[in-house]
Amino acid sequence: xxxxxxxxxxxxxxxxxxxxxxxxxxxxxxxxxxxxxxxxxxxxxxxxxxxxxxxxxxxxxxxxxxxxxxxxxxxxxxxxxxxxxxxxxxxxxxx
Length: 95
Known about the structure:
This protein is an all-alpha fold. The protein has 2 domains: about 1-40; about 40-95, no CATH class. It is built from 5 helices and no strands. Helix 4 (about 45-60) packs antiparallel against helix 5 (about 70-85).
């Protein structure tokens, strides 16, 4: 709900993330979740919120109601990114 309110306010330019920079020291996860704004790609800390937002917008557009979080795409993306960096083994490869 906070993200939806922030996104709506961002469209009118009334609530830039610089206005709640203080939140980063208190709740880093919430700060990054709200700081997505209208970005096309999220920071790592925002992946789950960003993916959920995209699924909720899609569901609303097609008249479907989500009954549980849809963050599998975010998890897959992070795993692929870490494998690309060589920090984790790709699925099916020996460790």
